[in-house]
Structure formats: structure tokens, C-alpha cells
């Protein structure tokens, strides 16, 4: 495996692992993307989004390109950790942790998707808790944000359950059609009382060296 620290990053919980998105793991995850199992109804993502591509071949190509592009953009104010969700040693989705104006504000945003085969089992909550642990405990974030279309009950439910505060709404498009997105915000001091003791981070020190040059 390429000796690039973020690819060796792992966040482990009793249920799942988040691991750096190596090309080998992306290849293992590709059948889920090709089959359209990263989608849901109502449409969950704002434009532009490679996962909306109708042609499976183009969908996979653009999805891979977006992950590779994210690897290559690392600045003081923006970086993106692409992490693959492992359940029983099998890749089932992605959980991204994104430094958005991090050097200035300490803000982290999250983005995720989970295979339709694994939904409604509490995995989405576990993914987000692992991401929060990485952001706050591992990267010293001051706040974490998330957003989802108003009718995305799953994502909004996770945010509410984990103590996020509603932070206004904004218009966005999905598949070219307008829709309202609910914004969410969680401060470090509100997360700390609920900090879990059973989540571990591996490969953190070397990853920090890459992100915080």
C-alpha cells in the first residue's frame, strides 16, 4: 500500500471500522456503487453528485475521480479524509471528515453514505459517532457541521439523536430540482459530556502531520 498517512488511518468502534480509502478498498466497494446501492429515495445528495449518474460505468468513474481528487487537495483551510466503513471486515459505505476553514475556525463537516443492504441497523449512528470522535478527540475540532435535505429523515434523525442543534436552512438542488436543506451544528463543549470511551484512533499522529503542515 502507498505510504501516505491518511490511507493508514483507522477509527474503530465495537461495531464498525472507518479506514483510509485505499485503492484496494475502493475496488471492493465499487460493486455497491455500480449497483446504485449508495442512493436512496427521496434523493439524498445535493448537486453535483457522481452517484446520481444513470450509466453505472460513468457513475463508478466519476465517483473514483472525486475520491482521488479529495486526496490531492490538502491546504491549511481545506482537506478531506475519505474513510471506508467496514462492517464484519466488509466495505459497506463511506464516511468523510472534511476540514472546512479548519485553520481559521476549527470547523469540520461530515458526509456519508451507506449501502441500502445495511440501513436501519444503527450503522449510520455508529459511523457518525466515529467521525465525531475523530474530529473532536483526534483533530481538536471546535465544531462539527452537517446538513441534509428536509425530507432526509435518516440523516436528520442521526444529527438530532447525537445532540446537534438546528442551524437554519438553505436552498440546494438535487438532480436539478430545488430543495431545502436543514443545517446542523455541534460544538465541542456539547459533545464532550457524551464522549465515548470505546472508540480508538490508529495512525493519527502521521495523519496530523499531513493535514497540519
From TrEMBL:
GO terms for molecular function: acyltransferase activity, transferring groups other than amino-acyl groups. It comes from the Bacteria. InterPro entries: Acyl_CoA_acyltransferase, GNAT_dom. It holds the Pfam family Acetyltransf_3. Keywords: Transferase. Residues 38-189 form the N-acetyltransferase domain. This is Protein N-acetyltransferase, RimJ/RimL family. It comes from Lacicoccus qingdaonensis.
